[in-house]
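Lab manual, section 2.4: Encoding a predicted structure.

Procedure: take the sequence of the chain (465 residues), apply the prediction step described in section 2.3, and record the output as structure tokens. A sample record is shown.
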Amino acid sequence: MKKNNVDFGSIQQKYLMQCWSVQSHYAPIAVDKADGCWIYTTDGRKIFDLRSAHECINLGFRHPKVLQAMRDQMEKVVYVTDDFATRPTAQLAKTLAEITPGDPNKRVWFAQSGAAAVEAAIKAARFYKYHQMITKGLDNLSAEMQYPYPYKIISRYRSWHGSTTGAASVSGDPRRWFIEPFTMPGVKHAPDAYCYRCPFHKTYPECDIDCVEYIDQMIELEGGSNKVAAVIVEPIVGSNGIIPPPEGYFPRLREICNKWDVVLIVDETMTGLGRTGKMFAIEHYNTVPDIIVTGKALGVYCPLTATIFSSKIAQVFENNVFGHGQSFSGHALACAAALASIKVLDEEGILDRVKEMGQYLGNRLKSLQQAHKSVGDVRGIGLFWTIELVKNRQTKEPFRKQTEKYTHNVVTEISEYLLRKKNIYIPADKFGIWIVPPLIVKNEEIDFLVDSIDEALKIADDKVT
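Recorded output:
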């Protein structure tokens, strides 16, 4: 049996192309099973998954209610095209339309990746604006609006929306650079809502939230409603630093989009389904987007994402083609899993638990800032946290710059130490220490995690200048 265990690890190492990695460094750990927050390896290790399997496994591994819903659905129908209706697909679309902010009269499109869902959002926003233009007719259009149609998308530099061409183009993450110069035309990147590293070198609230006011100016200078179709943002920046915006940012952004009649797209791929203590993170900011993208934790153990269109956007497709699709859209098995997960969040009081555990985790992490000179900032919300490491607290020089995402440095060393010495798995390519446990994490597990990080941070302290 042991020989077989070794074999499948080496087989995967030889034949699988690992994402975003140098293949000669690929060394997958052979897994026997996973349960709750833990991964059990074939060589007897028990590893805590502190990134919730790419932020997908909010409910932990092998939640019995979700698995039972999947078993039941597999005995009925796993997948049919959307020329047919299945109970879980229909019910999930209705549920998402109702539980997302705003009017419940929405339409939902299902995909298997966040990137595909973002692509749908971009296409829909552009067509919505194009439809506005042609509805007015040429006689009612000003000269500057006659060509081309509104197509520009404003994003932010510290953002990640996916690896397909459109989604990567609207991302600011260094992974965008892999497709350049063949990025999608019309994308403009705005300053970040990043109080620790304010792009305007000011302090909140005296800054008057210049980072959002700048977007107002960008839209005007890029042609206003005549040329700009949408603004796309993560409610809380994910891969690029887990950065919550300052209070007032999103209500003001909504005002700006309304002023210019520009579509507001909110990408909740990481933050949706309870990660921050609300069903959707945008609810913290009392803002209603025009389009919401969600995924990762949505399908739990099945690839499933969704693009949720407000009635304002959806209505233009009542008599016009929605020009987007995927073969497995509306996958019944995945939708059954998603419905079960939403039910679990409600029945087991997970959202309240995330608020409570998030406060406990946050307090414990903030205590590390006092103990370690390498800790520049500790920030997060719910169970979505990071520790930003700096070489010097006064200058805020980071240990990993944007241009150093794939360099081996102290962040990598801490990741390797935690995995090797403490059996804790975090990603090695982030811009800080990633602390994103499953929502079922227990107090004693948080204590174990924070104590281990406390020990590992000595690696960074020794390199502080």
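Check your result against the sample. Residues 31 and 41 are 4 Å apart (CA to CA).
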